[in-house]
Amino acid sequence: METYGIYGPVLLTTHPAPRGFLSRYLLSLTPVFLAAFSLLALTCLQSVVATFPSALIQSLETIVPELPAFIDMAVLLIAPIGIFLLFIYIGDATNHTEIWIGAALTLLLSGIGAFYQVQGLGIPTVSTIYLLTLCQWTAYLTQPFSVIASVLVITGTEVFRRSIRYTMMRDVVRITGGVWTPVEHLIAYQQIGRIIIKQNRFERFFHVGTIILAGVIYRGTDTSRSGTVSTNGTGAGIYPRIA
């Protein structure tokens, strides 16, 4: 029995399959990989610092007494803090929400936890040892908080997937989705000139791909809308790149 919506009779309503979001789930694990990479980079940097001539360090300490603390802070600002900041920028620049949100959450939670820990030590706020201890605690807390951030991002990604609804009507295709700001796309059948499905080897293995609904050519302009389709034969659905 047909149901009716604001745009006419509803023929089919479905959601994207979980396997269609597999790449997003993997990207949600970015904080864990960054924490592991940062730990490796930190070990390498500390090994490099250990090779500095001690005589040179001691002579420079006569000019800058807190030089060892500054060196340690510089190392920690590179790994893990600098690495996480870099991937926040990369995720935002490449429009991969899972990457920058995961990295930002890890750094934010670690910074808050480090601040709380350092405040309880009674160290003078305006001091080098305070900044060094803050960096050390931040570096330490990125490991547990990277797991928490990954779980939160995966949960948010799943909520977003379930919010997407693909509705086929007699005259239009209606695609809605979004958690904080719901978005609606309407595609009239007469505007669809051709349908293109793109798959790489990874997507072909998991039976997913990108479907492009190309519009008819109008005055030399060919418009198109893209989304992802699951080809597992269960009506898992097509979804647009809303986020």
Structure commentary:
It is elongated and about 80 Å long. The protein is an alpha+beta fold. It starts with a strand and ends with a strand. The chain has 7 helices and 9 strands. β8 and β9 (238-240) form a beta hairpin. It is 52% helix and 24% strand.
Task: Offer a few descriptive terms.
243 residues; alpha+beta; 2 domains; 5-stranded antiparallel beta sheet; 52% helix
* Rg (CA only): 25 Å
Largest pleated sheet: 5 strands, antiparallel
Query: What is the chain-wise order of helices and strands?
Result: EEHHHHHHEEEEHEEE
The level of helicity is 40-55%
Structural class: alpha+beta
Beta-strand percent range: 15-25%
Mean pLDDT: 84
The figure for the number of domains is 2
| Residue runs with pLDDT of under 50 for 5 or more positions | 217-226, 229-243
Number of helical regions: 7
Calculate the terminal CA-CA distance, rounded to whole Å: 33 Å
- Counted beta strands: 9
Name the overall outline: elongated
Strand order of the largest sheet: 1-2-3-4-5
Could you give the topology of this structure?
Layout: E1 3-5, E2 8-14, H1 22-27, H2 30-50, H3 54-61, H4 67-93, H5 97-119, H6 128-163, E3 165-169, E4 172-177, E5 183-188, E6 192-198, H7 201-205, E7 208-218, E8 221-230, E9 238-240
Antiparallel strand pairs: 1-2, 2-3, 3-4, 4-5, 6-7, 7-8, 8-9
Helix pairs in contact: 2-4, 2-6, 4-5, 4-6, 5-6
